[in-house]
Amino acid sequence: MKLTLKIWRQKNAQDKGGIVDYPIDGIEPDMSFLEMLDVLNEQLINKGDEPVAFDHDCREGICGMCSLFINGEAHGPDRGVTTCQLHMRMFKDGDTIFIEPFRAKAFPVIKDLVVDRSSFERIQHAGGFISVNTSGNTIDANTIPINKHDADKSFDAAACIGCGACVATCKNSSAMLFVSAKVSQYALLPQGKVEAVDRVLNMVHQMDAEGFGNCTNTGACEVECPKGISLENIARMNREYLAASLKG
Ligand code: SF4
Ligand code: FES
């Protein structure tokens, strides 16, 4: 396949940045999108040019590191996959592909296609955990009976990999889908109920402090989420937040 890549290049956080054209040839349909970028970077390095910086780690759809906006869609044109799982067979010979970083005030660009998503880490640190006394006498979680429906819903929410596609897709740059998944995975389980009030209040407070926008129920986040995180998590978080505010 012969393609024209239009890639966002930005030297650092201060640089204005801009789109640069890169013609590329010899791309196989079975290559992953990141392998295609590896080929480009090899060519750039061989010419003595600066390679394109992009985030990646597991390349298996698990870690949430890959984060590209491809032809105007977070993680590209396929559904239910991350950028690292996207294959070049989704494109045609002769295509022009725009590749940009995830854009949101709370995700500042560090370099080229790499953005700083530490705002997500700070939200997690604000309450995305349960406190357990690890004295050696801790009860195994599996000994606590849990309703199958709740266990399944919790597991679905826990599938969120923190990639940030929901934020990049939302016209308001809202992080509600991510935060609601992290709140829900605990809110549904008995172990999570002990700290439920503080958790939802602290995580929502941190989300607002990081500069994410508000949710206006458009639902674009759910469509682009590679892990199928449902909007019902946002409704659950809103109920949890209201109840916690009344208690608090
Ligand atoms: S909710 Fe979906 S899109 Fe948002 S961070 Fe989690 S996995 Fe990514
Ligand atoms: S590199 Fe880990 S999810 Fe894509």
TrEMBL record:
Residues 151-181 form the 4Fe-4S ferredoxin-type domain. Its cofactor is [3Fe-4S] cluster; [2Fe-2S] cluster. SUPFAM superfamilies: 2Fe-2S ferredoxin-like (SSF54292), alpha-helical ferredoxin (SSF46548). InterPro entries: 2Fe-2S_ferredoxin-like_sf (IPR036010), 2Fe2S_fd_BS (IPR006058), 4Fe4S_Fe-S-bd (IPR017896), Beta-grasp_dom_sf (IPR012675), Helical_ferredxn (IPR009051), SDH/FRD_Iron-Sulfur (IPR050573), Succ_DH/fum_Rdtase_N (IPR025192). Gene3D superfamilies: 3.10.20.30, Alpha-helical ferredoxin. One of its GO terms (molecular function) is 2 iron, 2 sulfur cluster binding. GO terms for biological process: aerobic respiration; respiratory electron transport chain. Belongs to the succinate dehydrogenase/fumarate reductase iron-sulfur protein family. This is Succinate dehydrogenase/fumarate reductase iron-sulfur subunit. It comes from Flavobacterium hercynium. The lineage of its organism: Bacteria, Pseudomonadati, Bacteroidota, Flavobacteriia, Flavobacteriales.
